[in-house]
């Protein structure tokens, strides 16, 4: 049954639904209150609003959620739409604005337990806050020197009580007034440093440089990562009173009171007292604090002192034994000597924890090589000097300072070529250590051996300041760091001391070859750094530039062969004609070499050519001679192909052989013999891919060799001769081995060799009359003479 509605009825109903929606939104929503979708508006572009997220939904998609008890919309779809269109002309009630509210204890729990992944960063954050307070004071004291009258020294002091699990951090910075305590510590995510920076930028004197660190307004709350309770006692030079802020973990409120105990008064600054959780009391050990300061904050521009136990060795007198004293008195001639022993006297005192100065902030012209080397050894715990260093400052769109090093030796295990997550690059933001755990953000995997520090004032970090966000700025930084790293390596290669680059290549040559595979953009920088053995330099590696200089005038390509050793490459049959023509061939003896060269493709407009593959062009083609040879041996090639069947794709006349009868070359786009060997050795190799890539092999014969000449004669005289056919099989197997391939059936190959050896040496050293030796110790019997007798008994 169809229900027809009047326009007035529909409009009234929609207005009632709208009022119900506004009441639902205006009412407070608790986590246990059930929320349903409500309808708002009724024009052709009707939208559905959710009281939970305020998001817009398509009407057609969510119309199923309507549940009006009167069933008013069961009639015609077109009439309902017309009614909705009419109601759009009615005046809408004014929208009411509400501000977001937050459950403070829940928000604090998220900040403390979800924002930071490493608990030990609490000390970094609190020291950074103290450094900012000192920086603010130093900046303001330029115009108001009276701010420094109470305490001239600007420093940070950290004292621990490991028995009670208490850490106290005191700075002599700007301090806070009562209102600033409420604003800065009582308002989550409000950064006093950010507010101060904004005021500085808006002032007329904003030309001065500053080193303020904070920016998010949540660093202070990292104290609750390890603390149950935090007490902040602070004295601002703007106020005559000292105030104490006190808050507890998982609490939604805090207290502020005036400090009345004279023993707790400080002249100026802030003192944070952390009461550690039971499981985190290990942070209260002085040695742990010292280590964290050196790791995260050793380059903060203000001195940081930690309360450390020290010892002084002293000599003290020892009481004499009464028996020995009586013996000494009896012998008056013996000179008496007081007995002493060494004891260590323990005491507590302040120790400077950040004595190492950030070398990257100095002018490179003023830093000596010894200072660079010393900084390298201290920062990265190395015992040997680096091969090279680069100190530079980048300005413009991205500003940062950096000092990079090329180590002299590779790390133990050499697994960093596989694992890109090394700790070789230390990232600082305003001299505060952020992270050394990167996965290719600043350096690609093949340059993971480069060590150094990078310091910037405006890196895109996440709120916890632990993760470097991927952005355009990071990509620009990466390009510039990679470029500087290449400049360093190139400097080593051009050095007069060739031994330095030999050392570098021995340790990190594989990394650069990996770069040829992974980094197409830097091929031009990588190629001049590569080194290989060659047919004309088997003892000393040469560069591609040296190869190009030694090329023949008519030579168009760079020739190479891949093998498992220099000896195997030298004796490969593929080189015979090239060596006769005095053409140099690169030996690729490292497993990664062949893939690296294939990715380079060319160098200085000269293509890389694998001499073990088909269609080798040596630039000496003689079409007349080739036609004559093809006419003489063309049918023999077809005969050999028929015998070998699917083992080879084709049989051709070779232009690369001179002394060998034949060779097996791989297809132009397939794997070489060396690559096939490597792929077979892979643990997780794909058998189907292996069969596909090794499928095309070309059998090349040398028409000038006597064996091929005999086979040609055999074909013409008796192509079905079994000996000739067996000779073809053996020739193929021999070519398989000499070309670097692995025989499918080594036992069968051995049997063929033994058979041919038997035929070759049969009867060569032996005769048919064999003299058997007489057995020893045998008696010689005399023969009996018998007279001939005639028949009938007569002689």
UniProtKB/TrEMBL annotation:
List of residues binding ATP: 125, 129, 171, 176, 191-192, 215-220, 270, 465
Region (Disordered): 767-795
Top-level division of the source organism's lineage: Eukaryota
Keyword Nucleotidyltransferase: no
Protein name: Heat shock protein 90-6, mitochondrial-like isoform X1
Lineage: Eukaryota, Viridiplantae, Streptophyta, Embryophyta, Tracheophyta
Family statement: Belongs to the heat shock protein 90 family.
Entries under SUPFAM superfamilies matching the protein: ATPase domain of HSP90 chaperone/DNA topoisomerase II/histidine kinase, HSP90 C-terminal domain, Ribosomal protein S5 domain 2-like
Cellular component, GO annotation: cytoplasm
Cross-referenced HAMAP family: HSP90 (MF_00505)
Pfam entry (one): HATPase_c_3
Keyword Acetylation among record annotations: no
The entry's keywords: ATP-binding, Chaperone, Nucleotide-binding, Stress response, Transit peptide
Listed GO MF terms: ATP binding; ATP hydrolysis activity; ATP-dependent protein folding chaperone; unfolded protein binding
């Amino acid at each position: 049954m169809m229900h027809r509605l009047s326009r007035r009825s529909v409009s009234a109903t929609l207005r009632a639904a709208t009022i119900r929606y506004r009441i639902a939104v205006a009412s407070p929503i608790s986590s246990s209150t059930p929320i349903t979708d409500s309808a708002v508006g009724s024009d052709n572009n009707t939208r559905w609003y959710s009281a939970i997220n305020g998001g817009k939904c398509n009407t057609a998609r969510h119309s199923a959620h309507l549940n009006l008890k009167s069933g008013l919309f069961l009639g015609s779809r077109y009439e309902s739409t017309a009614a909705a269109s009419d109601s759009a002309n009615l005046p809408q009630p004014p929208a009411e604005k509400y501000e977001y509210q937050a459950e403070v204890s829940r928000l604090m729990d998220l900040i403390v337990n979800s924002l930071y992944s490493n608990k030990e960063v609490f000390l970094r954050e609190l020291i950074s806050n103290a450094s900012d307070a000192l920086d603010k004071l130093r900046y303001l004291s330029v115009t108001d020197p009276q701010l420094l009258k109470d305490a001239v020294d600007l420093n940070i002091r950290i004292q621990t009580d490991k028995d009670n699990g208490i850490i106290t951090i005191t700075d002599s910075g700007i301090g806070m007034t009562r209102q600033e305590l409420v604003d800065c510590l009582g308002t989550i995510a409000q950064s006093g440093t950010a507010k101060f920076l904004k005021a500085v930028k808006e002032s007329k004197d904003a030309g001065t440089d500053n080193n303020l660190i904070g920016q998010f307004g949540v660093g202070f709350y990292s104290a609750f990562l390890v603390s149950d309770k935090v007490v902040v006692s602070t004295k601002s030079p703007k106020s005559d009173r000292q105030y104490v802020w006190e808050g507890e973990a998982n609490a939604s409120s805090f207290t502020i009171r005036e400090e009345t105990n004279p023993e707790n008064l400080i002249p100026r600054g802030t003192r944070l007292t952390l009461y550690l959780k039971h499981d985190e009391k290990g942070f209260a050990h002085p040695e742990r604090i010292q280590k964290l300061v050196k790791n995260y904050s050793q380059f903060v521009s203000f001195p940081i002192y930690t309360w450390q136990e020290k010892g002084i060795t002293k000599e003290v007198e020892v009481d004499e034994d009464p028996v020995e004293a009586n013996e000494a008195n009896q012998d008056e001639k013996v000179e008496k000597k007081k007995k002493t022993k060494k004891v260590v006297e323990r005491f507590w005192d302040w120790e400077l924890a950040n004595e190492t100065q950030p070398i990257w902030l100095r002018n490179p012209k003023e830093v000596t090589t010894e200072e660079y080397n010393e900084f390298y050894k201290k920062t990265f715990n190395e015992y040997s000097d680096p091969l090279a260093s680069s100190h530079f400052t980048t300005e413009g769109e991205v500003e940062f300072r950096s000092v990079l090093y090329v180590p002299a030796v590779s790390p133990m295990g050499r697994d960093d070529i596989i694992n890109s997550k090394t700790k070789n690059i230390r990232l600082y933001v305003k001299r505060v250590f952020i992270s050394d755990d990167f996965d290719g953000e600043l350096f690609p995997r093949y340059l993971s051996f480069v060590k150094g520090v990078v310091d910037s004032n405006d890196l895109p970090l996440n709120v916890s300041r632990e993760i470097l966000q991927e952005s355009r700025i990071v990509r620009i930084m990466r390009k510039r760091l990679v470029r500087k790293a290449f400049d360093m390596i190139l400097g080593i290669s051009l050095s007069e001391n060739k031994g330095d680059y030999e050392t570098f290549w021995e340790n990190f040559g594989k990394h650069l070859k990996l770069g040829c595979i992974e980094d197409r953009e830097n091929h031009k920088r990588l190629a001049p750094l590569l080194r290989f053995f060659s047919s004309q330099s088997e003892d000393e590696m040469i560069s591609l530039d040296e190869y190009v200089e030694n090329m023949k005038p008519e030579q168009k390509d760079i020739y190479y062969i891949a093998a498992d050793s220099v000896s195997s490459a030298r004796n490969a049959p593929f080189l015979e004609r090239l060596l006769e023509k005095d053409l140099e061939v690169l030996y690729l003896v490292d497993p990664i070499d062949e893939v690296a060269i294939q990715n380079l493709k060319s160098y200085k407009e000269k293509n890389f050519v694998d001499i073990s593959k088909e269609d080798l062009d040596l630039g000496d083609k003689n079409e007349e001679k080739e036609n004559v040879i093809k006419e003489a041996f063309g049918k023999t090639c077809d005969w050999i192909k028929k015998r070998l069947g699917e083992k080879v794709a084709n049989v051709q006349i070779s232009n690369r052989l001179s002394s060998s009868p034949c060779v097996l070359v791989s297809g132009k786009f397939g794997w070489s013999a060396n690559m096939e060997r490597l792929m077979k050795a892979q643990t997780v190799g794909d058998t189907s891919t292996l069969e596909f890539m090794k499928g095309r092999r070309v059998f090349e014969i040398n028409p000038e060799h006597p064996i091929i000449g005999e086979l040609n004669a055999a074909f013409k005289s008796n192509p079905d001769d079994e000996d000739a056919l067996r000779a073809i099989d053996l020739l193929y197997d021999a070519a398989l081995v000499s070309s670097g391939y692995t025989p499918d059936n080594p036992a069968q190959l051995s049997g063929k060799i033994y058979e041919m050896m038997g035929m070759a040496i049969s009867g060569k050293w032996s005769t048919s009359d064999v003299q058997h030796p007489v057995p020893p110790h045998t008696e010689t019997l005399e023969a009996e003479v018998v007279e001939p007798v005639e028949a009938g008994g007569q002689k």
